[in-house]
Write a structure and sequence with these properties.
Number of domains: 2
CATH architecture of the largest domain: Up-down Bundle
Largest sheet: 2 strands, antiparallel
CATH superfamily of the largest domain: Na+/H+ antiporter like domain
Radius of gyration: 23 Å
Order of helices and strands: HHHEEHHHHHHHHHHHHHHH
Helix content: 55-70%
CATH class of the largest domain: Mainly Alpha
Shape: globular
């Protein structure tokens, strides 16, 4: 995807010297596969450093404590905790925005069109969890059943971009909708399966904060600062409640309006009216501010926030998460451990088998339809690609396990994701024609 501003038939703003550096960066950040490339690079760096002579120093960075206090209130956590519970709340907020968009204006808004990706996602969650439990259904490791259930949308998008025009539109929609539905499932798994003992007072405060967000929206409050303050309060309450703090990000994302405040056509009318003032040589400040507000409110809060936050998530938060969580020392014991093998089996085998079987049942039952552009072999190959768990799988692993079991699970996630990505990519490369049929 190219720079969205480069093709606009509009007068351009004055150029500044720094634009020579920022414009190439902006073009790179608008390439569809760029986020996946940066995430992969961060993962490789983490793995290399964790298995180098600098391993102890590198891993110690993420255990460094950061604290702040305000009066009697204080928080003291490791850098890794701030990333996983703090910055990742922004990641989950964007996930909430994506889910809301798909449910309101996207492919999941119509049940008939959503049935196949929903069925595929259901199979792609149940089968991996079932395989994991079959192999690790007892003892402390059983808590990791949710690890192989998720699909990493960033890597899937990257693989689709590498395949280019070979990928027919319906397959792209199916995979992205499946990944979104997977995210919904992973969020439910985190909220239900990995919630610690509840502090009902803190949870009540969080719910009250969410209610305040709803009331403010109904009253017409449009200040980003007001919602940022309310959102920070909700995050703090959830963080103290025992419900994982990132769930607050998801809920706030789902509450974000998906439609613009200014109806279609109003922007053109106001810009045209203001143009008459400006063409006369005037510089009416009130008119400028009126146009500015109209322009801002002509885009829905959901689209505006998703567009603004997506680069920060893709190029800062997710790479930081990878650096803090993907660095695990590889040993022969880790790669052949029962936990690592169970996670790998869930991702590499469970994902494609579950997606294929439940999709087949849904189509045969008449509640879903297989697109004409591809057959079951492509569904199976796409199911392999969906076995790239990575970000969400590592996140759930950190909630479910600790110590050596966590290291083993991380090895399983990394190995299973690589195998799934390679098999899925080359299978689709072989099965799909050079151009969509």
């Amino acid at each position: 995807m190219s720079d969205p501003h480069s093709d606009l038939d509009l007068p351009q703003l004055p150029s500044e010297p720094i634009d020579r550096f920022t414009r190439p960066l902006a073009r790179f950040m608008h390439v569809e596969a760029a986020g996946g490339v940066v995430l992969m690079a961060a993962t490789v760096v983490a793995l290399v450093l964790a298995n180098s002579p600098a391993s102890d120093d590198f891993l110690a960075i993420w255990k460094t404590r950061l604290s702040f206090s305000f009066g009697a209130f204080s928080m003291d956590h490791s850098i890794q905790h701030w990333i996983n519970d703090g910055l990742m709340a922004v990641f989950f907020f964007v996930i909430g925005l994506e889910v809301k968009r798909e449910l309101v204006i996207g492919e999941l808004r119509e049940l008939r069109r959503a049935t196949l990706p929903l069925a595929a996602a259901l199979g792609g969650m149940l089968a991996p969890a079932g395989i994991y439990l079959a192999l690790q259904g007892s003892g402390e490791a059983a808590a990791g059943w949710g690890i192989p259930m998720a699909t990493d949308i960033a890597f899937v998008v990257g693989c689709l971009a590498l395949l280019g025009p070979r990928v027919p539109g319906p397959l792209r929609v199916l995979l992205l909708s499946l990944a979104i539905a997977d995210d919904i499932g992973a969020i439910l798994v985190i909220a239900i399966g990995y919630t610690a003992d509840l502090d009902l007072v803190a949870l009540s405060l969080g719910v009250a904060g969410i209610g305040a967000v709803v009331v403010a929206a109904r009253l017409g409050v449009r200040s980003v600062l007001a919602y940022t303050v309310l959102g920070a309060g909700v995050w703090l309450a959830f963080h103290a409640s025992g419900v994982h703090a990132t769930i607050a990000g998801v809920i706030l994302g789902l509450l974000t309006p998906a439609h613009s405040w200014v109806r279609d056509g109003v922007l053109g009318e106001i810009v045209e009216g203001a143009g008459r003032i400006f063409r006369g040589g005037g510089s009416d400040v009130a008119a400028v501010f009126h146009v500015e507000r109209t322009v801002r409110e002509s885009v829905s809060p959901l689209v505006r926030l998703e567009t603004r936050l997506h680069p920060w998530v893709s190029f800062l938060i997710m790479p930081l998460f990878a650096l803090a969580n993907a660095g695990v020392p590889f040993t022969a014991a880790h790669t052949s451990s029962p936990v690592a093998l169970a996670v790998m089996a869930g991702l590499v085998i469970g994902k494609p088998v579950g997606i294929l079987l439940v999709s087949f049942v849904a189509v045969r039952a008449g509640i879903a339809r297989l697109p004409d552009e591809f057959g079951w072999s492509v569904i199976a190959a796409a199911g392999c690609l969906a076995g790239i768990g990575f970000t969400m799988s590592l996140f759930i692993a950190g909630l479910a396990l600790g110590g050596s079991l966590l290291d083993e699970a991380k090895v399983g996630v990394l190995a299973g994701s690589v195998i799934s990505g390679v098999v899925g990519y080359f299978a689709l490369l072989r099965l799909l024609p050079r151009s969509p049929s």
